[in-house]
Design brief:
The chain is mainly β. Helices cover about 5% and strands about 55% of the residues.
C-alpha cells in the first residue's frame, strides 16, 4: 500500500513497538548509539500527504547509551540540560512526497530551549491489521542534525585533531502507529 492509499485518520505511536535512536561519532573513530525510552506522538493523515501532520515529544531523562555516567552527563547543562529543558518536541510544517512510499517531513524541532527547522526522510513500511483488529502503519524515519545549532557545544579537541564528540548526530526512528477510532 502506498502513502497515497492510506485512509484519513490519526495514528498514535505505539512506544512498545517503536524506537527513537541516535548515533554520534566518539573520538572521531566510532559511533556511540543511544535511545530515548519515553516518547509519544502521532501521524495525522488527510486525503493527501500535503495535508498530513506529524508531531512527537521525547522525554530527555529517558536517554540511554548503555553507560550511566555518560547518560548523566548528557542530561546535564553541557548537553540537553534536562532540568531546564525536559522534552524534545517536533511538529511538522510540511510533508512532501518523493515517491509513493518516500516523503520528506519538514518541521520544527525544539531541543535545549531552541527551535529550528529540521527535514527528515521517511519511508512507509506498510500497513497491517494486528491480531486485536487494530489498523497499524509502519514508518522508518532518518535524518541528521548538528547539535551546535541547538547550542550544544560541549567538546574537547584531542591530540590528533579529532574531537571527543562529533557535532553531527544521526537520527533514526522506527515507528509503528495505531489508527485511532
Amino acid at each position: 500500500m502506498s502513502a497515497t492509499e492510506i485512509q484519513t485518520s490519526t495514528y498514535t505511536i505505539d512506544p512498545a513497538h517503536s524506537s527513537v535512536e541516535f548515533a554520534v561519532k566518539h573520538l572521531g573513530i566510532a559511533s556511540v548509539k543511544g535511545t530515548f525510552a519515553t516518547f509519544e506522538g502521532a501521524l495525522v493523515l488527510g486525503e493527501s500527504l500535503a495535508g498530513a501532520q506529524a508531531h512527537g515529544t521525547v522525554e530527555v531523562a529517558s536517554i540511554d547509551t548503555k553507560e550511566s555516567t555518560r547518560d548523566e552527563h548528557l542530561r546535564s547543562a553541557d548537553f540537553f540540560d534536562a532540568e531546564n529543558h525536559p522534552q524534545l518536541t517536533f511538529r511538522s510544517t510540511a510533508i512532501r512526497p518523493i515517491d509513493d512510499e518516500t516523503f520528506d517531513i519538514v518541521g520544527d524541532l525544539t531541543m535545549h530551549g531552541i527551535t529550528r527547522e529540521l527535514t527528515l526522510r521517511a519511508e512507509l513500511q506498510g500497513t497491517e491489521i494486528d491480531p486485536w483488529g487494530n489498523e497499524r502503519i509502519g514508518v522508518e524515519v532518518k535524518g541528521q542534525l548538528n547539535r551546535s545549532d541547538w547550542d550544544m557545544r560541549f567538546n574537547q579537541v584531542l591530540g590528533s585533531g579529532n574531537v571527543l564528540v562529533s557535532d553531527k548526530v544521526k537520527l533514526s526512528l522506527d515507528i509503528s502507529a495505531v489508527k485511532q477510532s
